[in-house]
Amino acid sequence: MVSLDIYTIGGEIVLASLYFMFFKIGLFTIGGGYAMIPLIQDNLVAGGYMTNQEVLDMIAIAQMTPGPFSINAATFSGMKAASFFGAVISTLGLVTPSLVITLIIAKYFFNMQETTLVKGALYGIKPVVAALIASAASTLGIAAFFPKGYDLSSIINFLGSIDFLAIAMTVISFVVIVKYKVSPIITIICAAVIGMLIYS
Amino acid sequence: MGENEIAKEQLNKPELLKLFLACLKIGTFTFGGGYAMIALIHDEFVTHQHWVNEEDMCNIIAVAQSVPGVIAVNSSIMVGYRARKTKGALICALGVVLPSLISLSIISMFYLQFRDNRYVIGALRGIKAAVVALICSAIIKLGRPSIKDIFTGILCAVAFILAFFTDINAIILILSGGIVGYLYYRRRNRAS
Q1: Which residues contact A81 (CB under 8 A, 6 or more apart)?
Q2: Nearest-CB residue to B186 (from A120, A183, A200)
Q3: Of the residues A160, A197, B87, B171, which has the maximum number of CB atoms within 10 A of its CB?
Q4: For the whole prediction, is pTM greater than 0.90?
C-alpha cells in the first residue's frame, strides 16, 4: 500500500507529477504505444508508484481491454498510483501533447495539402506508413498463429505449434470484411464469441 | 482533379453528437492498438458516413503517425478536424479515449480475476485473429492510393524489411521516407 501512502501524504504533488510524467511519455512516444513501456517502467517503478509485476500485469491488461494500448496503460498506471483521479490525470497528461501538436498541424495541413512540399513528403511517407502497418500485422499475425511461439526443431513440431483455427478465423474475417463489406465491429464481436466457444 | 472535387462536394457534415457517438463506438471496439483502429475509422468515416474522403483519410493516417503522441488519438483529432474543425477534433479525441478510461478504471480493481478468466482469454484469442484481418484490410485501403509507381513500391518494400527485421525506430523510417519522397517528387515534376 505504498502508493496509497504517497497519495494521502501529498495528493496534489502526486497528481501533478503523474500529469507531467505522462505528458513527457506522450511527447516522446512517436510511432506506437509499445515504445512507451520502458518510459513507464523507468518513471513509475523508480518513483515507487508501481512494482515491476504490476507493470507486467498492466501490459497484459492494456492489450486485453478495449481502446488504444497507451491510453489503457496510462489509465491503469494512474489508477494504481492514485485511484480514479490518478487515472484521469495520467490520461490527460498522455493526450495533451497529441492534442496541442496535432491540432496545430491539422489547422495548417488541410490548407497546405496541395503544395509541392507536403505532396512530395507524403508521396514518400505514405508507402512507409503502409510498410509499418504491414510489419505490425506480421508481428501480430505470428503471435496469433503461434500462441506458444513457433517450434522450428522439426516439421512435425512446427506444424504442431500452428494454431490452424486462428489462421482460419483470420482468413474468414479478412474475406468477410474486404469482399462482403461486413462491418469490422460485427466481425470483432463474432470473433470474440467464437473464440470464447472454442478456446475456453 | 475533377473527380476529386466531386468527391469533396458529396461529403456530409456530421452533427457533433453523431461524431462523438461514432468515436465512442470506435474506441470501444479497438483492440490491439492504433493500427487496428484505422480500419474502424475508415469504415465509419469514409465508407458509411462519407465524412472524409478516401484521399484525405490516407493523408490523415500518414500525418497521425509522423507526429508525436498516441497514434489513435492523433488520427481521431485529424479526422474530427476534417469533419468539424476544432470542435470536431476535441469531440473525437474525447470519444476515442473515454471507453478506455471507463473500462480500465473498472477492470483495474479486479484485474487479476479478469486476466485469468478463461472466457476472457478465449474471446481475446478470437479477437486477435480478427484484428490481424482488420489490419490487413487497412493495408489494402491505404496501400492502393499510396503505392502508385515503382518508386513507391520499392520504398514500401525496403521500409517493410527494415521495420520487420531490424529495430530501427519508426520515426526514422518515416522521416527518411518523407525526405526521399520529396526529393524524387520534385525532380520528377521538374523533368516533366
Answers
A1: A3, A6, A7, A14, A18, A44, A49, A50, A90
A2: A120
A3: B171
A4: no
Counting the structural domains of chain A, the total is 2
The ipTM is 0.89
- pLDDT (0 to 100) of residue B149: 94
Each residue's pLDDT tens digit, B33-70:
788 899 999 999 999 999 999 999 999 999 998 888 88
Is B72 part of the contact surface with chain A (CB cutoff 8 Å)?
yes
pLDDT score for A62:
87
From A81, A96, A112, give the residue that closes a domain.
A112
- Say whether both A98 and A174 belong to one domain: no
DSSP A1-68: -HHHHHHHHSHHHHHHHHHHHHHHHHHH--S-GGGGHHHHIIIIIHTTSS-HHHHHHHHHHHHHSSS-
Q: In this structure, are A142 and A163 located in the same domain?
A: yes
If DSSP states are collapsed to H, E and C, what string results for chain B? CHHHHHHHHCCCCCCHHHHHHHHHHHHHCCCCCHHHHHHHHHHHHHHHCCCCCHHHHHHHHHHHHHCCCCHHHHHHHHHHHHHHHHHHHHHHHHHHHHHHHHHHHHHCCCHHHHHHCHHHHHHHHHHHHHHHHHHHHHHHHHHHHHCCCHHHHHHHHHHHHHHHHCCCCHHHHHHHHHHHHHHHHHHHHHHC
**Are residues A130 and A103 both part of a single domain?**
no
From A31, A119, A193, residue closest to B170, measured CB to CB: A31
Instruction: Extract the residue ranges of chain A whose pLDDT is less than 50.
Output: 1-9
* Mean pLDDT along residues B119-145: 91
* The domain boundary residue, chosen from A112, A133, A164: A112
Q: Which domain holds residue A120?
A: 116-199
B191 contact A CB<8A: no
Contacts of B56 in chain A (CB under 8 A): 110
Cβ pair A177:B39 closer than 8 A: yes
Residues A82 and A42 in one domain: yes
Is B78 touching A (CB cutoff 8 A)?
Answer: yes
pLDDT of res. A5:
43
* Optimal mutation site among B85, B132, B137, B164, interface A, most CBs of chain A within 10 A: B132
